[in-house]
Amino acid sequence: MTQTRTPTNALIVSHGQPSEPEVAEAEIRALARAVAAHLPEWQIEGATLAADGALEAALERVPGAIVYPMFMADGWFTQTALPRRLGDHAGAVLPPFGLDAGLPQLAADWLMAEVAAKGWAARDVSVFVSGHGSGRSPRPAEVTRDFAATLGGVFAAKEIRCGFVEEAPYLADVAAGLGAMAVSLPFFAARRGHVLDDLPEALEAVGFAGLRLDPIGLHPRVPEMIANSLRRA
Q1: Could you give the C-alpha distances from 155 to 3, 127, 147, 161, in angstroms and in order?
Q2: Over the stretch 73-103, which tens digit does the pLDDT of each residue have?
Q3: Is the pLDDT of residue 2 over 80?
Q4: Are residues 91 and 115 in the same domain?
Q5: Is residue 225 part of a domain?
Q6: Among 54, 71, 99, where does a domain finish?
Q7: How many folded domains does the chain comprise?
Q8: 115 & 62 share domain
Q9: Residues 89, 196 share a domain
Q10: Residues 15/129/150/192 CA torsion (nearest 10 deg)
Q11: Where a domain ends, among 70, 99, 128?
Q12: What residues contact 207, with CB distance under 8 A and at least 6 apart?
């Protein structure tokens, strides 16, 4: 007798954009659809914390959902704000995107492909990982450095440097002097805010001549990686 598997609910949550909540809301819903393409038996929703009522409405559509936080670190938003908003309406909350165990390998594969396309050898390449950092908590920088350290174990670069927007070492200080055989890898989930202003300004200020990648959250393999994390959960 063939058994039909009961659909599993999941909810992908991001901070969103308070100034333009509808933009980030559309993005997170698009990501949820992309993840759902890898999990056809699941019901997957996306919502932001910033859009008024969006999270609560999504929870009604996927009660008891496994929650995947589309955040780069496990700070106040994922440990306090999100659980408070979820209440008892959701199931397990997974580690955030920036701590996903599959992320360093995804980044390594991406870097290898980009470096090969340039005709470079990994051992000659400097990687500049840019992160948010924080003036209030050490955790965002710690997560970025941990990611970079793990990345170094699967991508044998000449060096991997980390620079931050809100704390030392700052972006421009770290990006300076990297030369042409370098890759800028933004450790961010979306293309907005710091990725659109602070990062390019810092790179231009020091004459960065290397390859500039999109934020890691926009890589085409991210939906599959999230799907795998949900499936393991």
Answers
A1: 43, 10, 12, 13
A2: 998 889 899 999 999 999 999 999 999 999 9
A3: no
A4: no
A5: no
A6: 99
A7: 2
A8: no
A9: no
A10: 20
A11: 99
A12: none
- Average pLDDT score, the chain: 94
User: How is residue 90 annotated by DSSP?
Assistant: E
The CATH code of the domain that includes 85 is 3.40.50.1400
Q: Is residue 231 part of a domain?
A: no
Taking alpha carbons only, the member of 100, 102, 101, 145 closest to residue 127 is 145
Q: Please, how many CA atoms are within 13 Å of residue 133, restricted to the half-sphere of its CB?
A: 16
Q: Could you tell me if 117 and 206 lie in one domain?
A: yes
How many whole angstroms separate alpha carbon 56 and alpha carbon 70? 17
Q: List, in sequence order, every residue forming a beta bridge with 211; answer none if it has no partner.
A: 183
Inform me whether the pLDDT recorded for 8 exceeds 50: yes
Query: Please, which residues bridge with residue 13 across strands?
Result: 47, 69
CA dihedral of residues 57, 62, 68, 74 (deg, nearest 10): 50
Per DSSP, the three-state class of 163 is: strand
The predicted structure's pLDDT at residue 6: 52
Q: Say what the pLDDT of residue 193 is.
A: 85
**Interatomic CA distance for residues 186 and 183, integer angstroms:** 10
Radius of gyration of the chain (CA): 18
227 domain-assigned: no
List phi, psi (to 5°) of 228: -65, -40
233 in a structural domain: no
The span from the CA of 222 to the CA of 224, in Å, is 5
| Cα separation, 118 vs 208, whole angstroms | 16
Instruction: For residue 66, give its domain range.
Output: 9-99
